[in-house]
Write a structure and sequence with these properties.
7-stranded mixed barrel, alpha+beta
């Protein structure tokens, strides 16, 4: 124990100095908010601010109407409500329940999870102290077991407003509220700019697992949006600097590069084992430089492929978190490794690294965006996203950032876009291929809107301005060559020669000419007309005998049609009169077969 005390002292001193350094920088954390409109009772009617929790799934761009309930027991929500026999599942035809709980005694995420499992549609946490609104953050150590499973939105309300809600409920009033996220993110134009503040460290527990699950699930969507010019994406990484007095200490030399200028926390929180913070900084720097090189070649979406593949091929727990492993991933993507290494520079040099210096400058908030202090963080249109790092939730936030009527199809498709990728009948193990190259590697896509992603992995070709595809959004999966073509629908569809195979245009005197995907049939002579439906030719100019016979057929046909129409008219008139008479009589006496039954129905963010 005594031997580890100096290390602990150095660690505490270093953390204290880092905190002082950050304080001197006059950082500014911005609490992201949404509005809460009370529609009843009249005494509380109005619009109030609430702080969006950094867990759950806020309905960015949308609204949610519900009724507030304050539980009779377990009012802080720290225990399962089933222990008290309470359930907040709405009854048939009833409004969703927004559960109001008090702050304190347990993590915010615990309150959210207990409210969700009890059936609540949202959780409102009433502050227990008079202070400005803060961001309810996720815990750093314990209390993470439910983090990835919380889907209901959460919000913190002020102590005063919380007390008003409780008073109204205790008086027996029904409190109806509307949670509104429509203006939580700006939506100025037809392109959304967003940032992803992340980290290459994969040994930080639940947060790292959630981050990699998000990269895996969101990668295909991000690449589609970027390739089509709907979004402009940029990854960022947080680093700190070591106080000058400690630059030569063991703690700084193991956690920092470039002579203490750029540092990251020890991945295992133990300076004596495993990888060091400087290893994390170097890998972060490689990822930034890879994005810069990819962006210069107008392929910024390759960053998603690299990050995903690096996490699989070079994990810390397998002792593969090295620069050599990173180089192998870069080569597999076909990128210029020399340009990337030049961008990375010399981590041992006693000089500024322009790339990392720019990252430190970007950490400081500007405009409406506050400082980035939480990892991971999403920033959409210069406003920090709050909530669960989930594909659907983040895509909803991005889509709410488009100017109205300019959203891409992927935002308008109900249920968003679901893509299933397989290779040779099984899921691939490496993510070095883009989701947009499905057909190249024998892969397939399924789900609504699948044809928007590389044509669903199906065959497609354009000739003479005419495009033909084997993918159809009318079916959920599969590829099928369109009429006039044959093949597997995935790799190829070949034109069917209807003339050579004698499928059409076989009438007497007909001449057949094959075209791409169809055919042309001529009847030989200007007085003949080809009827495709019947595969036959008829004369445009009929002889007199045939003509008179044809006219008599028309006359008799018209006569029979007139008689039939009159009979139908009389029948419908009689039916109409009968229904009118029955309706009038029903007003005075019930008919025997009438159904008379009716059916009616000063801290800015914290984790506790």
């Amino acid at each position: 124990m005594g031997g580890r005390s100096p290390a602990r002292w150095w660690r505490c001193a270093l953390l204290l100095l880092l905190a002082l350094a950050l304080a001197v920088a006059e950082g500014r954390f911005v609490v992201e908010k949404n509005s809460l409109r009370v529609t009843s009772p009249a005494a509380l009617r109005g619009v109030y601010e609430c702080a969006i929790g950094n867990f759950g799934m806020p309905q960015y761009g949308g609204t949610m109407h519900g009724v507030v309930v304050y539980p009779k027991a377990n009012r802080k929500g720290c225990k399962p409500f089933s222990d008290s026999g309470l359930s907040f599942n709405p009854k048939a035809g009833g409004l969703p329940v927004f559960l109001l709980v008090d702050r304190g005694d347990c993590y915010f995420t615990t309150k959210g999870w207990n409210a969700q499992t009890a059936g609540a549609a949202a959780v409102l946490v009433a502050d227990d102290r008079a202070e400005p609104l803060i961001t309810m953050d996720t815990p750093e150590s314990a209390g993470k077991e439910h983090l990835e499973n919380i889907t209901v939105p959460s919000a913190l309300v002020s102590k005063r407003f919380g007390d008003d809600l409780k008073t109204a409920l205790e008086n027996g009033d029904m409190v109806n509220v509307l949670l509104d996220w429509r203006e939580s993110l700006p939506h100025p134009d037809e392109r959304v700019e967003y940032e992803f503040w992340t980290n290459s460290n994969d040994e930080c527990g639940a947060k790292c697992d959630m981050q990699m699950n998000f990269v895996r699930n969101f990668r295909g969507v991000a690449q589609v949006l970027e390739q089509r010019g709907y979004t402009q994406f940029a990854p960022h990484y947080i680093t700190w600097y070591c106080p000058e007095a400690f630059v030569l200490s063991k703690q700084c030399t193991s956690q920092c590069i470039n002579h203490g200028r750029y540092c990251a926390p020890d991945p295992e929180q133990d300076f004596t084992t495993g990888y060091d913070g400087k290893d994390v900084v170097v890998q972060n720097l490689i990822q930034i430089c890879l994005f810069k090189v990819a962006n210069e070649s107008r392929k910024p979406w390759l960053w998603w492929d690299y990050v995903h593949d690096f996490a699989i091929r070079c994990p810390m727990k397998e002792k593969k978190y090295t620069r050599d492993c990173a180089n192998g991933v870069i080569k597999s993507l076909g990128m210029d490794i020399d340009k990337i290494n030049k961008c990375v520079g010399d981590p041992d040099a006693d000089e500024d690294n322009p790339v990392l210096k720019a990252e430190q400058d970007a950490q400081i908030g500007h405009g409406s965006r506050g400082d980035v202090t939480i990892l991971p963080t999403f920033v959409v249109n210069n406003r920090q996203y709050r909530g669960k790092l989930d594909k659907r939730a983040v895509l909803r936030a991005i889509c709410s950032g488009f100017e109205e009527t300019t959203e891409p199809d992927i935002c308008l498709t109900q249920g968003l876009v679901v893509v299933t990728v397989k290779q040779n009948g099984s899921h691939r193990t490496l993510a070095i291929y883009s989701c947009l190259c499905l057909r190249c590697f024998g892969m397939s896509a399924s789900g609504v809107g699948r044809c928007q992603i590389n044509n669903g992995g199906c065959w497609k070709e354009t000739r003479n301005g005419k495009s033909v595809s084997a993918c159809s959004n009318e079916v959920a999966k599969g590829c099928k060559c369109p009429p006039g073509f044959k093949g597997d629908g995935i790799h190829s569809c070949e034109d069917i020669d209807e003339c050579k195979e004698r499928l059409f245009c076989q009438c007497k005197g007909c001449s057949c000419e094959n075209t791409w995907g169809s055919y042309e049939c001529g009847c030989g002579g200007n007085n003949m007309l080809y009827m495709r439906e019947h595969d036959t030719c008829i004369s445009k100019v009929a002889s007199s005998s045939v003509g008179w016979g044809f006219l008599w057929v028309i006359f008799f046909g018209l006569g029979f049609a007139g008689v039939g129409a009159y009979a139908v008219y009389k029948y419908r008139l009689r039916s109409y009169m009968d229904s009118e008479i029955r309706a009038i009589m029903a007003q005075y006496m019930p008919l025997e077969n009438q159904d008379t039954s009716s059916h009616q129905r000063p801290v800015e963010h914290a984790d506790i």
